[in-house]
Design goal:
CATH superfamily of the largest domain: DHBP synthase
Helix content: 25-40%
Strand content: 15-25%
Distance between the termini: 38 Å
Strand order of the largest sheet: 1-8-2-3-7-4-6-5-9-10-11
Bound molecules: threonylcarbamoyladenylate, magnesium ion
CATH class of the largest domain: Alpha Beta
Oligomer: single chain
Number of domains: 2
Number of helices: 11
CATH topology of the largest domain: DHBP synthase
Length: about 325
């Protein structure tokens, strides 16, 4: 990854417009929310989202939260529900993320959901974040703005310590006042606690009038690829294929002949951006088996291989 100049943008109209322009052009912008600083990209732009994982050095494609400007924007992308309405009414804008079924043809990059059929949405309370989202008028995918495995950042200094030279811009919104990530509630089946956070569980239970099922298993949160709902192709998957067998659908990498190529030039960001799209596309063809070229383990390759290994694992 080549070093880029990270602009620190002030909390002014010009700072805000620049941040929005950078996002609109597929760049990465770290921005303050009331919980922690987020590392944002246009959630509908595959390459921009792929770069989030590259900048964070994430070895896996964990699903990301899509930050929205208002409830209307959330409803464009997920199947809204009465429970969602109650919780949004009570706690939005604020430190609460809701996981809801993703709408078909939503336009959200599959890297945001890690190929799941659900999407986490959040309406942050920080005024600068809300202005940025409203001006962009698109959802922004954002994990916490730290290098993978490090502590979440609550100030500009924290963000720069990890990400200076790896992102285009950092919108300075001061220190985060909640300082703890959002509470994540799953509204797919019965309401479930996916992660404790800024909104206390009791407050949520009292609004919904039910006890929450608790699902904070590391497998669910850290390795969504192991969730029962995860996307595994219908076809079987063969990895590290250096020769193609008859009848296989060929997912290539690098300058080779194949059915679909993750990146002819061997560009990891491009490969990550194409990964879920190409798996879905090949799976919709009439083939029983997908063979995948070897992918180097460096940089985003670790996350790409992690995902491919899950797709290739024996099905239960
Ligand atoms: O306060 C916050 O939530 C901050 C700020 C920036 O908004 N963001 C944040 O993102 O903490 P991150 O990526 O560090 O944590 C997001 C969590 C992950 O544990 C991920 O597994 C879970 O959300 N998640 C996202 N989408 C999900 C989905 N569709 N199903 C289950 N879990 C999901
Ligand atoms: Mg985090």
């Amino acid at each position: 990854m080549s070093k880029i100049e990270t602009q620190v943008l002030p909390e002014t109209d010009t700072g805000l417009s620049t941040a929005v322009d950078v996002l609109a052009q597929g760049g990465l912008v770290s921005f303050a929310t009331e919980t922690v600083y987020g590392l944002g990209a246009d959630a509908t732009n595959d390459k921009a989202v792929a770069r989030i994982f590259e900048a964070k050095g994430r070895p896996q494609f964990n699903p990301l939260i899509a930050h929205v400007a208002d409830i209307g924007m959330a409803k464009e992308f997920v199947e809204w529900s009465d429970e969602a309405d109650k919780l949004a009414e009570a706690f939005w804008p604020g430190p609460l993320s809701l996981v809801l079924p993703l709408k078909e043809n939503s336009g959200i990059s599959p890297l945001v959901t890690a190929g799941l059929s659900s999407l986490a949405v959040r309406l942050p309370a920080h005024p600068l974040a809300r202005q940025m989202l409203a001006k962009l008028s698109k959802p922004v995918a954002a994990p916490s703005a730290n290098i993978s495995g490090k502590i979440s950042p609550t100030s500009v200094v924290h963000v720069l310590a990890g990400l200076d030279g790896k992102i285009e811009a950092l919108l300075d919104g001061g220190n985060c006042n909640v300082g703890l990530e959002s509470t994540i509630i799953g509204l797919i089946d019965a309401p479930a606690l996916f992660r404790p956070g800024g909104v206390p569980v009791e407050a949520i239970e009292s609004v919904l009038g039910v006890r929450l099922a608790v699902d904070t298993s590391p497998e669910t949160l850290i390795a969504p690829g192991q969730m029962t709902s995860h996307y595994a192709p219908g076809a079987s998957v063969r990895l590290n294929a250096t020769k193609w067998h008859a009848g296989e659908l060929r997912l290539g990498f690098g300058p080779i002949e194949c059915d679909l190529n993750l990146s002819e030039t061997g560009d990891m960001v491009e490969a990550a951006a194409n990964l879920f799209h190409h798996l879905h596309a090949l799976d919709s063809r009439d083939g029983k088996s997908i063979a995948v070229s070897p992918i180097p383990q460096s940089g985003l390759g670790a996350a790409i291989n992690d995902r491919l290994e899950r797709a290739a694992a024996p099905r239960s």
